[in-house]
User: What shape does this take?
Amino acid sequence: MNKTAQNIITAAERMIWDAGYHSFSFRKIANELSIKDASIHYHFTAKEDLDLAVTKGYTEVFLNAFGNSESKKTITFYIKAFEGSLKIG
Assistant: This one.
């Protein structure tokens, strides 16, 4: 992931923490980072894609806390099962 994409994710994460999911928009992020909306759309097609990138970051941090243990494999199994259940509905 390049620096611009990471900066976009960081800005979105901060806005979500500060005021919730509906508080961030591509326009607000673009203004904060002094870039064009199109630059954000280049990396993330929709707001949901950006939200997914933020969420994946949390998942990676969580899994890394387990290291290379057997527990990590078990947790990964449950995460994939949960993600699968979200796609059914």
